[in-house]
Fold this sequence. Notes:
seven-stranded mixed β-sheet; globular; CATH 3.30.1330.40; alpha+beta; 5 helices
Amino acid sequence: MRQPGQIIGKPAFASVADVSYLSVHDASVQCTDTANILGVIGFGTERPDFLPPICAFLPAPLAPIGGGAMLELWRTPSPCRPINFGPVTGAYSDHLAFGAITLDEKPGLCLEATAETAYLAIFDFLDQTGFSTPLRFWNYLSEITQETDGLERYRRFNIGRHRAFCTRLQEPLPPAASGVGGTHGASVIYFLAARDPARPIENPRQISAFAYPPLYGPQSPSFSRASIYQSDSSTVMFISGTASIVGHESLHPGDLNRQTEETIANLQALIDAAGITGLGNWSFKIYLRDPAYHATVDSALIAAFGPASERLHLHGEICRRELLLEIEAFCRVR
Ligand code: 3EB
C-alpha cells in the first residue's frame, strides 16, 4: 500500500530534495500535505488553487508539450518555511533553499544590467538566508537569440551573469544551470542553494562552457556541466542543460535524430565522469525548439534510460539557433 507522502513510481528513500513533474490535478491529489513543498514552477499555468499562498510559486515562460499545464515540484523530507528577500521569493528547509526572481526588463536598460541586478539580488538572498552556495540555476530568457543593438540577448545575459558571479560567487567554479529561451512572458531565474558546495563535474567530450572561445560571445557562459551534491542523508546529481555540442561546436545542424543521439551521448559521458554508482531514478526536462520533436526524443530517452524515468517536455528556444533540443537531468543516488 502506498504510504502518505510517498511519490508514485519513486523509491521510498528520502532524498535531500526530490523533483516531480505533475499535472495540476495529480499534484493536488498528491500534495495533501503542502508543508514539505520547497518550490513550485508552473508551465502553462499560474498558481494552482490547491497551493497555499505561502508556498513559493513561479510561472515559467515555457509551455508544456503533449498535454495540459504541468508543475515542477521540489520537495524535501523536512518541513519548509517561506522566505522572501528583496525581489527574490522562496523557501527553505534543513538543507536546501529555493528561490525565484522575475527579471524586470525596463525599456532603455540593457539585459547585461538587468541580469547582473537580478543575480546580485539572488546573492543577497543567499547571504541573508545562510544558504550561501547556489547548487543549480534555471535561466529562462525571453527572445533569447534576438539581437538588440548588434548583440544577441543571450550574449548580453552572459555578460551580466558573469559580472555578478565575479563579485559574489564564493566557489571557484560556477554551478550547474540551464539556459533556455521562453516562448511568452517575462524572463525568470530560479535556483536551489545549500549551506555547503556541490562537486562540479565537466564533460570530457566538451570544452567547459566557461572556457568557450569568443566565437559564442564576448563572455563565455558561467555554468558547470553537472554536479554532485551530498548531504548527510543522501546524494543527488544535477546535470545542466545538455545539447548536441562536442568540443565547443554544435554538431548535426538540422538533424533531429543525430542531435538527440549526441545529446544522450553527452548525458552518458557526464554520468561516467561523475564516477558514482547506485544512480537511482532519473528525471529529465527536455526543451524542444519544435513541439513536433516530442515523440522522437522521448523514445530515444526511454531506450537509453528506461520507461521508469520521469520526462517533462517543454517548448523552448535553444540559445544557439542551429540546436533543436537541450536536455537536463536530476538523479537520486542510493
Ligand atoms: C551549451 O552547452 C548549451 O547559459 O546557463 C546549457 C546549459 C546552455 C546552461 C546557461 C546554456 C546554459 O552551451 C546551452
